[in-house]
Amino acid sequence: MGRARLRRGEIGVPGTKQINKDRWDAWARFGASDGRTVRIERTGRTKAIAIRAVQEAAAARVEGWRLDGEAAAENAVPTVAQLAEDWFRSIEPPKIEVNQIGNAVEASFDTSVRRQTFDQYQSTYRNHIGAGLGQMKVSDVGVKVGSDFLFGLIDGGNGLTRARLARVVLSSILQLAVDQEVLPYNPVRNIKPLPKRRAKPKALNEPSLDEVRSAVRSWRNQPGTFGPPNDGTLADIVDVMLATGTRIGEVLALRWNDVDLVSSVPTVSITGTIVEPRHGPKYRQPAPKSEGSIRKIPLPQFAVDVLLRRRACSLPINTVDAVFWSQNGTFMQPSSVRRSLRSALSAAGVKFDFKVTPHTFRKTVATLLAREAGKGAARSVIGHSKEETTDKYYIEPVTQVEDHRDLIEGAFGRRPEGKLNRST
Hints:
By secondary structure, the chain is mostly helical. It has three domains: 15-76, no CATH class; 80-190, DNA polymerase, domain 1, CATH 1.10.150.130; 206-393, Intergrase catalytic core (hpI Integrase, Chain A). The chain has helices at residues 47-76, 80-91, 115-133, 143-152, 160-179, 206-218, 233-244, 248-252, 301-312, 334-348, 358-373, 375-382, 387-393, 405-412, and strands at residues 15-20, 23-31, 37-44, 259-260, 267-270, 273-275, 283-285, 295-298. A three-stranded antiparallel sheet has the order 1-2-3, with helices on one face. A hairpin with a 2-residue loop joins strand 1 (15-20) and strand 2. Helix 2 crosses helix 5 (160-179), helix 11 runs antiparallel to helix 12 and helix 12 packs across helix 13. It starts with 14 loop residues before the first strand and ends in a 12-residue tail after the last helix. It comes from Arthrobacter flavus. InterPro entries: DNA_brk_join_enz, Integrase-like_cat_sf, Integrase_catalytic, Integrase_recombinase_N, Tyrosine_recombinase_XerCD. Belongs to the 'phage' integrase family. Residues 199-409 form the Tyr recombinase domain. This is Tyrosine-type recombinase/integrase.
């Protein structure tokens, strides 16, 4: 019967033989890494030295396997950059194709991330995460490293947005390491919350709104003013935003087939938005920001008047059938409207203690509706799925309480007769 095969790293009973007075030969069977049994042989001046040399040779082979295994394991741990590449590949949406009239062409597949969000994630990784952590092994990015990195992106009150985006991207990359069983847990989830902005929503009161509307109507109407004359488009956009509480991208995405001015209740249907990606052409996306943003909004009469006038003067160059068309007959861009609004307010010398943007009109509508018709009405018109979002980010807090002096006077105003007891 043959001798039993030794297990990996196991050494058999050494054998010895004296070669001459100053030399002994020793050997032993050894379980090799590939499962075979091999012979290790060494010599020494004495029998004990020869046996010890065989045992040390076997131990050296086992240690070599351990070091090789550790090196292989170390090499198997990917860097943040390597996992980032895998993550971006897994979530990348199809490239946006735009037809001749500026509409996004429906893609053959979709992902959970929209193209503009994907581009934003990539920019955040490239500018911040890749530069700071990209070459580190993911196993070296623990809670402290991640926390120091994210909070290091905040400079006083600045950088909160980039830090928040970086947290989302870094957490997603390290979660992929958890899914691949490279990490036991996601360290970003144990990082304390990032600070939040304390700015409260600001809405325009009636006098301030009158100033703004006057400024956009008088803009570039004076002789010698630089730039094309004011054709009333900016004022019309402001009026429709005030009538609907819509986002600037939603207003500019309106087409005439989204407008119903003949029904007993005139409406506009919000079915899309204008997207200005970091890369590639600008386009009309055939869906607004969220499912809750798809809505049909009844129009007050002043908005109906604006839309009737614009429909009557729509030019043949308006090939996209837009309610607000550009000089080239395409959809207007939100960035262009923002610049025009800043220019109009600056030319008129209109200044407040907060910055007025197209989004200010949306907050103004939300504040009015919340105070007069309730927060539920504000949420419905604004197009939020949660009333908490409308309340927190869009409705300006009330600072002037209602006048209930008569009620309090009647209940507590009369004092009982008698003197006050005073302690001496």
